[in-house]
Amino acid sequence: MGVTEARRFLVVGRVGDNSLHRHWVADTATERTWDLQLNAYGHDESKIQNGDLPPVIDRGTKWDSLVRHFRAYPELLDRYDYVMLPDDDLMMDVRTINRIFEIVVQYDLTMAQPSLSYESYISYPIVLRSAPFRLRYTTFIESMSCCMKTSFLKRLLPMFEEHFTGWGTDLVWTMLMEDPAYRAAIIDEVSMVHTRPLYVGPIYKTFAAQSIDPQQEIVTLRESFENTPDAMLIYGGVLRNGRKVDGAEARLRNGLQLIASSPRSPKPYDTFRFGAGSLLRIVTRAGFRPEQLRPVAGSRAALWFGKSNAS
């Protein structure tokens, strides 16, 4: 499989027949810094011919399909520095994606995601755009549009081979690197729109057909580590003017912003509650700094992320 020589970044879109990926590349006047490859679960192959690399047809679920993708083409994880893995119901454009890659390089992030706009369908208020920030350092990166160093994705592939729903992985993966502090962030300077209502995508029909319980995968992954956090936390940030702030100021600004914005949130009560919780954690999580997760002895996680395998 050929690759573009000049670009350091790769976007692999997991796409169906109604995918929005055409919008990602529609602005042909703006130079892209990234290559696009489509990993397709749809049936109309005429809709997946606008990538830079040849499309791949795989009608499994997102994460087991992506595992097969990178196992089949391991050179992709050597050629590119970062890879972004967006779902097909996300509205973004060339400038948005360019800026995401600029920021992850500038701040040497191992993982990141763009924030969600207030027009989006959301699962977790933590990912809603927080206007005071350029980015917020976090223990939680959602799986719908994660961006990560390719070297780190290599380490995660064994986990996805067994936990291929992806559920639960976003609760732990920001802390699987050796020194996770300030390595994962939600990027507020740019945001995307999640256009599809929750729990209605084709993947949920696949889970049901295969009698897969994603909630059980969450439980299994959380129980695989001794020190899994009991909450999604913000522990620092960079303001729009470039000034870095510590955990207390980040929680204060983020909490107040969420409370003020909760009436226009798609989940007003949850957003207000998370904002209030952020204020409370100024005291209860004072000085919090994420640490590498410790796999439970004898667990599958110990095989993947034990000390001998840590990078």
From TrEMBL:
InterPro entries: DUF707, Nucleotide-diphossugar_trans
SUPFAM superfamilies the record matches: Nucleotide-diphospho-sugar transferases
Listed Pfam families: DUF707 (PF05212)
Protein name stated in the entry: DUF707 domain-containing protein
Organism: Aureimonas endophytica
